[in-house]
Amino acid sequence: MPTKREVSGTKRNKKALLLSTARRIVADGGFQDLQMATVANAAGMAVGTIYRYFPSKMQLCVELVSLASQREVDVLAGVALSEGAPEQKLGDAIRAFVGRAMQAPRLAYAMIVEPVFPEVELARHTYDRKICKVLESILLEGIRDGVFREMDVEISAACMFGAFHEGLVGPLAPEATALPDHVPDLIDSMVEFCLASVLKFDRSQILQTTQQTAPNVQVLKRVSHEEKK
Q1: pLDDT digits (tens, 9 = 90+) for 163-206
Q2: Helix axes 153-172, 105-112, angle to 10 degrees
Q3: Which domains are seen in the chain, by residue range?
């Protein structure tokens, strides 16, 4: 008669097999192709077995998103804790997130943005906040080191995450036609945009530039006024 430990191990193995099988199905066709019977059959189990571990498709989807998202949080947290300058860490974190997504675009699209269940959206939001917290830690380090400008790190991290997160939606979409050799340029653009938003800048130079362009602003106002006549 199997021991409790053996039974528990068997259950864990079956659950892991069901999750890995479901992940492969989502990677091929998204959540729209994920059916409980399909997962069970592909895993070599009876259809009733899958419901012992996941009472509904919604719960299966939530667990898939949670596992995938936690993996990304762990990767970015590892970058944040590594040796190196804050600006290098920030760039590496963005490159890791975007690069990993582009390696498996259909899976990433499903995990990040594909419409499915409200409960999945809540799970996504939970892990999005965790990623933002990792970004906040890098921003705080950069401010302490005098590399990044003073800012509200919570707002800045959320805006930054939104930038490269939303920037992925188009390239990851199933109908996207981006070629693989465009991916490095895509990643570079996102890194440059995010770094430019937080790196210190010469305020006096910005003020001087603003003053030099002031007459042009007046011209625009005059043109706008004339158009209204």
Answers
A1: 999 999 989 988 876 556 788 899 999 999 999 999 987 544 44
A2: 130
A3: 1-55 (1.10.10.60), 61-202 (1.10.357.10)
